[in-house]
Design brief:
By secondary structure, the protein is α+β, with helices and mostly antiparallel strands. 21% of the residues lie in helices and 29% in strands. The protein contains five helices and twelve strands. The chain has helices at 32-52, 54-57, 74-77, 87-94, 138-148, and strands spanning 2-10, 19-21, 27-29, 60-61, 85-86, 105-109, 115-125, 160-161, 164-165, 175-179, 185-194, 207-218.
């Protein structure tokens, strides 16, 4: 399965120094809000993919395929083996990390269905010879992108906005993400270039235009994942 995602906006560096201790004495990623802002843009496109791709539209399974679902899906699938439910619905309930805030995630590439993810990123940036964020920082900025394409883990806590828990909007129920873990990425290519188009008036030097070519590939073929081949 191949498709493209796009993003126009700030892409900031993701570094260990961007973690700070919260009131509970635990370390939080200070870029978490920025990453979730990007994740929301990707959600809009992935939601459209699930709505328009014929294979994803009909992706349902009975209880007999419970091994192809995350372990927590057993709690929401039901006992009747004849029951069939849309896969997106089941996944959003199984990955309901922050139910009280309306978040139920639907990762497309998951360990249970033996998918690996190849990413080819075209990154048009505003770097120049005296830029604050020069080209040598591109690795850390791509790390931010990979995190934004990934479902946040339970230990990362609920997404925040201005330091407060962010409530999922109606359009974000469920919330679509590319993958459940960044370990799904087995191939990554990044091409960079200078963005010659005028940026938005309020853009800083972290502004980029991205075209992300995604290829999902099976590394162990089953009847359940043939549609991804």
């Amino acid at each position: 399965m191949r498709f493209r995602l796009t993003y126009d906006g700030p892409l900031k560096s993701s570094q260990p120094t961007h973690k700070s201790e919260d009131a509970n004495g635990q370390f939080r990623d200070r870029r978490a809000e920025h990453k979730h802002d990007i994740r929301r843009k990707m959600h809009e496109q992935l939601k459209q993919l699930w709505a328009t791709n014929k294979f994803l539209q009909i992706l349902i399974a009975p209880n007999s395929h419970i091994t192809q679902l995350p372990p927590s899906a057993g709690m929401v699938w039901g006992e009747d083996p004849s029951i069939r439910r849309p896969m997106a619905t089941v996944l959003s309930e199984a990955y309901s990390h922050h139910r009280e805030h309306g978040y139920g995630y639907v990762p497309l590439a998951r360990e249970e269905i033996y998918l690996e993810c190849s990413l080819r990123v075209l990154c048009l940036r505003r770097d120049h010879h005296d830029a604050v964020l020069p080209a040598r920082d591109i690795d850390n900025r791509i790390k931010t992108l990979i995190d934004a394409l990934t479902m946040p883990s339970l230990r990362q806590g609920v997404p925040l906005k201005d330091g407060k828990p962010r409530i999922a909007s109606d359009d974000e129920k469920p919330f679509f993400v590319l993958m459940d873990d960044d370990r799904r990425v087995t191939h990554l290519e990044v091409e960079t270039g200078i963005d010659l188009a005028p940026p938005p008036a309020d853009a800083d030097e972290s502004f980029v235009r991205l075209v992300i070519s995604v290829e999902l590939r099976t590394y162990y073929t089953t009847m359940f994942n043939l549609g991804f081949a």
